[in-house]
Amino acid sequence: KAGVTQTPRYLIKTRGQQVTLSCSPISGHRSVSWYQQTPGQGLQFLFEYFSETQRNKGNFPGRFSGRQFSNSRSEMNVSTLELGDSALYLCASRKAGQSREQYFGPGTRLTVT
Amino acid sequence: TQLLEQSPQFLSIQEGENLTVYCNSSSVFSSLQWYRQEPGEGPVLLVTVVTGGEVKKLKRLTFQFGDARKDSSLHITAAQPGDTGLYLCAGVSRAGGTSYGKLTFGQGTILTVHP
C-alpha cells in the first residue's frame, strides 16, 4: 500500500509570494491533517479536512488556507509569504471514523528568502 | 490551549544504556501517542495509549499513560544506535472521531545512541 505522498519535496520562495503544497493520502483514507514543523515551535497543527470540509483549525493566520478534493487529495496554500513561514510542512492521513492512527508524509521543506 | 512538555530535550547515551523520556501536561488528554522521526522523513507512529494507567510494550520500548491521563513516559531498554532519532509525544484533547485528526505535540526529544 503506497504511503502518503507530498509534492514538491523542496521549495524556495521569496517574501510576498504565495505557495501551494499538495498531499495525496493513503488510499481509502478520508481525513487529511496539515502540520508546520520548525526548530523553535516544533510541530503545530494547521487544519484538518474530511469529506472536503475543514473540520478542525489551529491558531494560524488567515494567510494559511487549505482545501480537499473529492478524491481526498488535499492542498494547502500560504499567501503573502513571510520569512517566518520557512518550515517543514507535513500532512498526515487517517482512515477517519474512530481510527486514531495518523500516517505522515515526508513533508515539503519550504524556504522563504 | 493544551500544552505538552517533553523532557529531556536532548539525550546522548552509549549503546546498551537505558533511558526514559517524559511527556507532561496540566491538562487531561483522551489519548496520547508517541512518534519517532528521522531526518528527512515524517513522524512514524509507535504507539497509542488510551486508558489511564495503561502500559504498552513494543520490543525494548515501554510506554506508560499516567493514571490521570495528563502524562506519559517512554522507556527504552538497552538502547541501540538504530534507536537514534527525534521522539515526539502527541495528545488528543477530546475523545471522538472528529477530534482525532488534531494532535498537540510536545517539543520532542533528540536521542543519540553512540556505538
Number of helices of chain B: 0
The coarse overall form of chain A would be: globular
Label the structural class of chain A: mainly beta
User: What helical percentage do the residues of chain A reach?
Assistant: under 10%
Per DSSP E runs of 2 or more residues, the count of β-strands of chain A stands at 11
Q: Total number of helical segments of chain A?
A: 0
The succession of helices and strands of chain A, N to C, reads EEEEEEEEEEE
Strand content of chain B: over 45%
Proportion in helices of chain B: under 10%
**Cα end-to-end separation of chain B:** 40 Å
Radius of gyration of chain A: 13 Å
Distance between the termini of chain A: 37 Å
Hey, roughly how much beta strand do the residues of chain A contain? Answer: over 45%
**Overall average pLDDT of chain A:** 95
> How many beta-strand runs of chain B?
11
Low-confidence stretches of chain B: none
Topology, pairings included?
The complex is a heterodimer of chains A (113) and B (115).
Chain A lengths: L4 E3 L2 E4 L5 E6 L6 E8 L3 E9 L2 E5 L6 E5 L5 E5 L8 E8 L8 E2 L3 E5 L1
Chain B lengths: L4 E3 L2 E5 L4 E6 L6 E7 L6 E6 L5 E4 L2 E5 L5 E6 L8 E8 L11 E2 L3 E6 L1
Parallel strand pairs in B: 2-11
Antiparallel strand pairs in B: 1-3, 3-8, 4-5, 4-9, 6-7, 7-8, 9-10, 9-11
What would you say about this model in short?
Chain A has 113 residues and is mostly beta strands.
Structure description:
- The complex is a heterodimer of chains A (113) and B (115).
- Chain A is an all-beta fold.
- In chain A, 0% of the residues lie in helices and 53% in strands.
- Chain A is globular.
- The mean pLDDT of chain A is 95.
- By secondary structure, chain B is mainly beta.
- Chain B contains no helices and 11 strands.
- Chain B has strands at residues 5-7, 10-14, 19-24, 31-37, 44-49, 55-58, 61-65, 71-76, 85-92, 104-105, 109-114.
- In chain B, strands 2, 4, 5, 9, 10 and 11 form a 6-stranded mixed beta sheet that branches. Chain B has a 5-stranded antiparallel beta sheet with strand order 1-3-8-7-6, with no helix packed on it.
- The interface between A and B is medium-sized, with 29 and 27 residues.
